[in-house]
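User: I'm curious whether this sequence folds into something compact or stays loose and floppy. Could you predict its structure so I can see for myself?
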Amino acid sequence: MAGGWTRDGAVLDQIHDTVIDGVLTARARMPTGPGRETCLECGDPIPAARRRAMPGAVTCVSCQTGRDARIVTGGINRRGSKDSQLR
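Assistant: Here's the prediction. I'll summarize afterward.
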């Protein structure tokens, strides 16, 4: 279903692009490298299970939870309508 001047399937293309952008953003945020044995923020030891599950982890679970809560996502307005741009 398309509306206005768009071609058929344009909405699905927008959804697909939004999902791909989200996946790429999440992959870019994943830690890389050797990681640490102690938390970068609080100094507590990072459990071995976390280091195995998340290679490159530099924070403990509680500090990472706080970091994740502060992440601000600024998406791309793919619709381009006047109403969505005024928000």
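Summary: Residues 32-71 form one domain. Helices lie at 10-29, 48-53, 61-69, 82-86.
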